[in-house]
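To whoever picks this up:

The parser on our side crashed when reading a file containing two proteins. I've narrowed it down to the boundary between the first structure block and the second sequence. Both blocks are reproduced below exactly, byte for byte. First block:
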Amino acid sequence: GEDASLVHKGCFLSLPGSETQVYHQDGVHLNKKTHKPCYAINVFIPLVDCTMSNGPTEFCLGTHYLGYENFIKEQVYTPCVSAGTPVIFDYRLGHRGLRNYGQCVRPVVYLTYSSVASGKEFRDSVNFSRKRYHKLGDIAEKPLSREERAQKRRRQVT
């Protein structure tokens, strides 16, 4: 609706040979006594077709309800959708990425939306803590400029 706000975005990769993740929920219930409506949703958009061999995401249906958070094998659902097809789910729904038996990376764009209640939007300070992530500049070398690449080619030729 009109009160939706994009609060997190990014991309994750399921690399060839990656193991099945531990079953988890991205968000917890904000009230532990009474079940409340959804306060945030995830949108997963796979950039390649999802198959059972390339490690799709498995969901445990009903686990977003307060008191029903436990993994029950009989309640799992694994959507194998085509590239570009969004999978939308409650932030509290239990899920896990399955093992990637394939030879290719399975990239997925994720978007997290939250409703803005009373002018205040939800922020996940557990999964998206500044302490947990590094800036890309801290872990990757700065790319060479066009001029530096040209100089490097000239040195290689001589």
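<<boundary where parser fails>>
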Amino acid sequence: NFFICGTWNAGIVDCLADDIQHSKETMPGAIYDVFLERRSKFFVAEADRLIDQMITDVHKGETKPLISASSMKEAGIARKNSLMKKAYVHESKKLFIQNLKRDGGDVELYVINGEIEGSKFSDYGGIVFEMFYRVDLSLFG
């Protein structure tokens, strides 16, 4: 997560690698906003990767998922039964995020801020989570 800030020579800015971003901002708040934007893009890419893995499992005929992006109900079941290992959640799911934080620290929680349109993460409802082991959550429901 590397970026340069402030006024720089155009020759330097034009030859920056794709993974290095430039911001003309120099105020700490604005620089932090650039960081948050880049972090959210990275988290969306990671969430999309998990969804791709989930789709691959479905195509293989796996009946007990390791990754789920189906509903908030299943996410709540996984959370309440301590099955959830990692979760990528859009900031709009405020109650779920609040409950995860209240429960304590055994779930890796990644809150994605800002726009998610055009991603698989958005298409699947703004939540994807990985469990500790393969399980049919409908058995707990």
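After patching the parser it read the second block fine. The longest strand covers residues 84-90. The longest helix spans residues 28-59.
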